[in-house]
Design a protein that fits this description.
disordered N terminus, 3 domains, seven-stranded mixed beta sheet, Immunoglobulin-like, binds zinc ion, 12 helices, alpha+beta, Aminopeptidase, elongated, single chain, six-stranded mixed beta sheet
Length: 585
């Protein structure tokens, strides 16, 4: 039986255990050179230590030699790795998301949810976790202060990945391992299937070469281990198969098949196994074969506003889509070679149901949608994608709000009668900063006319808003009555008609949140709201020289509430309230 090519310089007189270890490192020459020459002794020792570690576990689990798995993801993580004698530790952080691992909870340990596997608890003392009913030994977690640290090699082992650590650069790379290769004859030609220990980051790239005739497939993020290639079936047009580590940066594993006549190669699609392993299917077929075929249909995205179906295979033209209310029916050139993959199916998604009807050349995909939507085709390297989107979805535009803190500097504005005296100019700036923060959290851009206690003439305030092309202008003031205590409550001022709806929504939210007396929305020719081009209002949430309202204004929570009411008023005016409330849930 042919086996994967290997270079000789990696296997020099190993002991039994070393042989296990070295089998891990039995890459074709590019990787070997990388591991053994380029990076020097430190990397070599680190990798050797990792391999010993992995190998040692392989022996504890079973008597028979366990095929040790290298892992691959071809993603380099920059981590502040904590070095301990046994293995490097990395902090629990965003890089887990890149591995599609979810940190579920935190108690005496860390509850991690692995892709395709059950969640498990990993503690600072236990050296065993149970994954899919199997007990596995792992190094314990570390906890230093508030920070959690994960042992990298143990994590990689749980994921069936190989961690290649570069201690000098403090980086780690993870890779998936080729586990098996299978060949079988199908109606349309020959199907070659390659199984990897982990889901690869991208589909393989395929192509043909001449003299001799051969086809190849490149798998990014995959590494080679010592596996046995299947024998070639009688009468097949394949004369030889080879595997090699085509590139190390990025990691690319190349499959090559020499053929007795020119063949085409195409990607049929992939299947995910129970443990998260991934099997990619390739179709090798004669160049003369003109029959249309379809490899696989996969629902690969399904959210409430958009769904994407991926169609692997050959199309002479784009399949026709027919609309019948919320049902789409897509005429297919033939029945798919692999079953419909509904991996992304969810109850909340736009696609409620999808099935393939018919056989041979009369097949069609029938899709039931949650609500009416439009579909269009997008060409991909292998096949096409059908993108289905609901019509009225548009992302919220980033709006610019100019917030004007009234008065400032030599102009203190109103003043409270009791000591220590509150100045309007200080309170308006305080509220302006609070409003700015809330608006920015809500996704708005904010410009303040002043950010400290300086005097700013009214025309300058207007110019800031007009020159910036603001979408709204809000001037913040606090009221005063000639006789202290003589008047109280909330007022909002506007001048132009376009400003009235903004004044109304801010006024309504101020009354709701502050609970003060409503003195009305008033149309008044105040300078800053008369000369600004955009919807502009001036708010007077309450009276600074009314004893009760003065006491309230001394409270931080009350000033925060004023800012919040103005924020909700702006959001409602722009129609952003439903989105923001949804985000806040
Ligand atoms: Zn004022």
């Amino acid at each position: 039986m042919p086996t994967a090519n290997r270079s000789a310089n990696c296997s020099n007189n190993p002991s039994h255990r070393q042989r296990q270890v070295l089998s891990l490192l039995t890459f074709p020459s590019p990787v070997c050179q990388f591991l053994w020459r380029k990076e020097g002794a430190k990397v070599r020792m680190a990798i050797l230590a990792l391999c010993l570690f992995v190998s040692a576990f392989g022996h504890t689990q079973s008597e028979a030699p366990v095929p040790t798995r290298l892992l691959v993801l071809d993603k380099t993580f920059n981590l502040p790795i904590l070095w301990l004698p046994d293995e490097p530790y990395a902090p629990v952080g965003d890089w887990l998301t890149a591995l599609k691992i979810r940190w579920v909870a935190q108690g005496s340990g860390l509850a991690l949810k692995l892709p395709y596997q059950t969640a498990f608890l990993w503690t600072t003392t236990s050296a065993k976790v149970i994954v899919n009913g199997r007990e596995m030994e792992v190094a314990p977690l570390l906890r230093r202060g508030e920070d959690w640290w994960l042992p990298l090699v143990s994590l990689a082992r749980l994921l069936r990945l190989l961690a290649v650590v570069n201690p000098e650069k403090r980086m780690v790379k993870l890779a998936a391992l080729l586990q098996s290769v299978a060949v079988k004859q199908v109606a349309l030609g020959w199907q070659v299937s390659l199984t990897f220990s982990y889901r690869l980051p991208t589909p393989p790239k395929v192509g043909t070469l001449r003299e001799p005739d051969r086809v190849y497939a490149d798998f990014v993020g995959a590494a080679l281990q010592d596996i046995t290639l299947p024998s070639l079936p009688d009468g097949s047009p394949l004369s030889k198969m080879r595997l090699g580590q085509f590139s190390n940066e990025p990691l690319i594993l190349r499959f090559v098949a020499e053929t007795t006549s020119p063949l085409q190669i195409s990607v049929v699609g992939s299947e995910i196994g129970d443990e998260g392993d991934e099997r990619w299917h390739l179709l090798l077929f004669s160049s003369e074969q003109r029959e249309q075929w379809l490899g696989q249909i996969r629902l690969q995205e399904n959210i409430s506003t958009r769904a994407i179906f991926r169609f692997w295979g050959r199309f002479e033209e784009k399949p026709t889509v027919r609309y019948e209310g919320t049902t789409l029916s897509i005429l297919l050139p033939s029945a798919p070679l692999l079953p419909l993959d509904n991996a992304s199916f969810t109850d909340e998604g736009l696609v409620r149901e999808a099935r393939v009807e018919g056989q041979g050349t009369a097949a069609r995909l029938v899709v039931t949608l949650l609500k009416p939507a439009q579909a269009h085709w997008e060409k991909r390297e292998q096949g096409v994608e059908l993108v289905i989107e609901t019509p009225f979805v548009r992302p919220r535009r980033v709006r610019l709000i100019v917030v004007d803190a009234g008065h400032g500097g030599k102009d203190p504005g109103a003043m409270s009668p009791s000591q220590p005296s509150l100045l309007e100019k200080h309170l308006t700036l305080d509220i302006a900063f609070r409003l700015k923060r809330l608006l920015e959290q809500g996704g708005y851009q904010v410009l303040l006319t002043r950010t400290d206690d300086t005097y700013l003439p009214l025309p300058d305030r207007v110019a800031i808003a007009n020159n910036a092309g603001a979408d709204a202008f809000v001037s913040i003031h606090l009221n005063a009555f000639p006789q202290p205590g003589g008047q109280w409550g909330t007022e909002v001022y506007y001048w132009t008609l376009q400003s009235l709806p903004l004044a109304e929504s801010i006024y309504r939210h101020l009354l709701t949140l502050l609970g003060r007396k409503g003195n009305g929305i008033r149309q008044r020719q105040l300078y800053v709201i008369r000369h600004t081009f955009m919807p502009s209002v001036l708010v007077e949430p309450c009276y600074l020289n009314h004893p009760e309202e003065e006491a309230l204004l001394r409270q931080e929570w009350f000033r925060e509430r004023i800012a919040l009411a103005i924020f909700w008023g702006i959001a409602e005016f722009f129609g952003d309230l439903p989105t923001l409330q949804k985000q806040g849930e």
